Amino acid sequence: MAKMGSRKHLKRYKAPKSWPIHPKEDTWTVKPAPGSHAIEDSLPLLVIIRDILGLADNSREAKRIINTGNVLIDGRAVKDYKFPVGFMDVLTIPKTEENYRILLDTKGRLTLHPISAEDATYKLAKVVNKSTIKGGKTQLNLHDGRNVLVDEDVYAGQDVVCIGIPEQEIKENFKFDDGVVVLVTGGKHTGELGKIQEVIVDESSKPNTAIIEKANGDSFLTLKEYAFVIGKDEPAIDLLEVNQ
């Protein structure tokens, strides 16, 4: 029985550092289901409802809220309390008219940022890779696990698309290029905002890097894959105060 429990649950002190929960409040917490985001990049929906938003006093109440379809992720009702909610996902609670976008603070913690109803109609998603499917169409594989078919192959890896939710219509494409605005999603500069000054291509097996310039003129080096484009000249989304 103990082994079964360890597969279904997660000890709080072993929870990823990206989870904004206290490790000593309880012994166990919910383990997210495999899905659109990795465990270190997502929060189980129950943890959001009970521990972060405080809409339930216990897991039973949280499950009841979720099971009734009162929580939307990217515009669709989700009834799985273990559903992994990750970076850039949009969470909506229609009854209370609350909308949140999942962002990262400068400590690497996944944070619910309140947004307007209008802002909740779209999200940003990074192109991880792409493939050509039967019929010659291009399929974009995005960081949140979704796949989007496009007629024109004008997208490249690390571009970020702005998509309408839940219909998944691409509204805009932000190219990964010098001068664009990025939010850093990993490393010691997680949560910092800046513009790409230069991309450094390493000829060896080492990963490519990027020099990011902040608004105050300071610059820093980070891995290219950590630079998430959020706009051309200005951020296309509202950000946490600590990101700015």
The helicity comes to under 10%
| The named CATH superfamily of the largest domain | RNA-binding S4 domain
Radius of gyration: 19 Å
CATH-scheme architecture of the largest domain = Roll
Distance between the termini: 48 Å
Briefly, what CATH class of the largest domain?
Answer: Alpha Beta
The backbone outline, from C-alpha atoms, is globular
Main β sheet profile: 5 strands, antiparallel
Question: pLDDT under 50 segments (min length 5)?
Answer: 1-6
Q: Tell me the count of domains.
A: 3
CATH topology of the largest domain, by name, is Structural Genomics Hypothetical 15.5 Kd Protein In mrcA-pckA Intergenic Region, Chain A
Average residue pLDDT: 89
Q: Tell me the β content.
A: 35-45%
Report the order of strands and helices: HEEEHHEEEEEEEEEEEEEEEE
Strand order of the largest sheet: 5-4-7-8-9
The oligomeric status of these chains comes to single chain
Counting helices, strands and paired strands, the structural category is mainly beta
Number of helices: 3
**In total, how many beta strands?**
19
Account of the protein in words:
With 244 residues, the protein is mainly β. The protein folds into three domains: 2-117, Structural Genomics Hypothetical 15.5 Kd Protein In mrcA-pckA Intergenic Region, Chain A; 121-174, OB fold (Dihydrolipoamide Acetyltransferase, E2P); 181-235, SH3 type barrels. Helices cover 10% and strands 36% of the residues. The chain is built from three helices and 19 strands. It has helices at 2-8, 45-52, 59-67, and strands at 9-11, 28-30, 42-44, 72-73, 76-77, 84-86, 90-93, 98-104, 110-114, 122-132, 138-142, 147-150, 160-164, 170-174, 181-184, 193-200, 209-213, 219-223, 227-231. It has a five-stranded antiparallel beta sheet, with no helix packed on it. A five-stranded antiparallel beta sheet has the order 12-11-10-13-14, with no helix packed on it. It has a five-stranded antiparallel beta sheet with strand order 18-17-16-15-19, with no helix packed on it. Strand 10 (122-132) and strand 11 form a beta hairpin. The longest helix is centred in the N-terminal third of the chain and has 9 residues, at 59-67. The N and C termini lie far apart (48 Å). Mean pLDDT is 89; it is low at 1-6.
